[in-house]
Design goal:
Blueprint lengths: L5 E4 L11 H12 L7 E4 L7 H16 L7 E7 L3 H5 L4 H16 L6 E6 L12 H10 L4 E5 L8 H17 L4 E4 L7 H14 L7
Parallel strand pairs: 1-2, 3-4, 3-5, 5-6
Helix pairs in contact: 2-4, 2-7, 5-6
Length: 212
């Protein structure tokens, strides 16, 4: 970093949360503290409502649905959870997750009942944001919604919390409750539409620094 004069730091969390985006930013600034000559720095803000991000999500849903024999009864949009206390303290994460789901639904042209917003990865004694994904998919199965799809918009790439928790533990909970078809829609990962969205966000934050 010694020779850098300008740095754009991009936490790859579409929705802002103190436990994710802010923590990444903290570590970045801790690294800068070690530099005698600190560069100019820009922090890329959350991009939960960026049109190209929403478009990339929508394309991933359309692609997944086109490959299925039967249309799912509902799409569960599962976000990483956090204690409710964070929301009451002013963290915008919950509201941004809700808006991402709404914008995705509007882009797909679906009705209000077509997408459910839920939260996963709950642990510890505190009450977390609800509904909990694992409980919600069980309730869907008991309501007779035997075919569901699950997407994880808060993760830019698949990880243990999507591949193991959603496509493993949450799938099993749904099936044990009587669910028949559980379709996990992969994270955006290296999809072209996702990369295009990230490049657009980066270019917007490079404005004035890089000649176009």
């Amino acid at each position: 970093m010694r020779d850098a004069r300008r740095i754009v730091f991009f936490p790859l969390y579409p929705q802002y949360a103190g436990a994710t985006s802010a923590t990444a930013n903290d570590q970045f600034f801790r690294a800068l503290m070690k530099e005698k000559r600190q560069p100019a720095a820009r922090i890329v803000p959350e991009y939960f409502e960026h049109p190209l991000y929403i478009e990339a999500l929508a394309q991933s849903v359309e692609r997944a649905y086109a490959a299925l024999d039967h249309r799912p009864d509902v799409l569960v949009s599962s976000y990483h959870g956090m204690p409710i206390r964070y929301l009451t303290e002013g963290d915008p994460y919950h509201c941004q997750c809700a808006k991402t789901s709404r914008l995705l639904r509007e882009r797909l042209g679906w009705g209000k009942e077509a997408i459910d917003t839920t939260f996963q990865s709950v642990f510890g004694p505190e009450e977390w944001l609800k509904p909990y994904t694992v409980d919600h998919v069980v309730e869907l199965a008991r309501q007779g919604k035997k075919r569901i799809a699950v997407i994880a918009p808060a993760f830019s790439a698949d990880c243990i919390e999507t591949l193991e928790e959603i496509n493993g533990e949450i799938r099993e909970s749904f099936e044990h409750a009587g669910g028949e078809v559980f379709s996990y829609i992969p994270c955006l990962n290296d999809e072209v539409a996702h990369i295009d969205a990230l490049v657009a966000v980066i270019n917007e934050n490079l404005a004035g620094w890089v000649a176009r």
